[in-house]
Design brief:
82% helix; 199 residues; mainly alpha; 2 strands; rod-shaped
Length: 199
């Protein structure tokens, strides 16, 4: 009887140990599965939020690109026009046309939507996408500053070798800064696409 009791106690102990180990393993596995499901849904929500702010920056920057691109010719007229008069060339645009050019340039150079959208991207991250967004904002700021300072270019003229007055700002500068903006937007779009498609 002692042997039977010992066998029964050993069997009961083994069964209890097996149940504890099996139960612990089941709880750990269930916890991992729940954690994975929870983190997966958080990742999905985060990517959706990122996609939305990335799209907003692209929308704002493309609108800014279109608006500033539409006034590049006007900016060129503003920079070249006064000097045509000095050189006794026929006047190209009336003062009312030039005033309309100035208003259009000033209106197009409003970069606040781009700056606000870029700040949102910086919050959502990750760092490489945030850096690309900062580059878009910086390029938009540079173009805005250039367009808004066209009038200052007339006040800061300098004499060239022939004794004629030339603007302190090159007539090509607005277009160069516009091309920098386009490049920054393209780089941002590519960086954001790579991030969103990476798993």
């Amino acid at each position: 009887m002692e042997n039977e009791l010992a066998i029964a106690l050993i069997g009961a102990g083994s069964a209890l140990t097996g149940a504890v180990i099996g139960g612990t393993a089941a709880v750990v596995a269930a916890s991992k599965t729940a954690r994975s499901a929870y983190l997966g849904s958080l990742d999905s929500i985060r990517r959706t939020a990122q996609r939305e702010v990335y799209a907003e920056l692209l929308k704002a920057s493309h609108s800014y690109e279109a608006a500033t691109g539409a006034v590049l010719e006007s900016a060129g007229f503003q920079l070249d026009g006064p000097f045509s008069e000095q050189e006794a060339l026929p006047r190209q645009h009336s003062s009312s046309e030039r005033s309309a050019f100035r208003r259009a340039i000033s209106s197009a150079a409003d970069l606040e939507p781009v700056a606000a959208a870029a700040r949102q991207v910086e919050l959502e991250g990750p760092s490489r996408v945030a850096a690309a967004a900062r580059n878009v904002r910086a390029a938009a700021q540079l173009l805005s500053t250039t367009l808004n300072s066209i009038e200052d270019g007339f006040e800061d003229r300098f004499a060239d070798a022939d004794g004629g007055l030339r603007p302190a700002m090159s007539a090509d500068l607005p277009r160069e800064h516009f091309e920098l903006l386009k490049s920054a937007i393209s780089t941002f779009a590519e960086t954001a696409r790579k991030h969103l498609n990476h798993r």
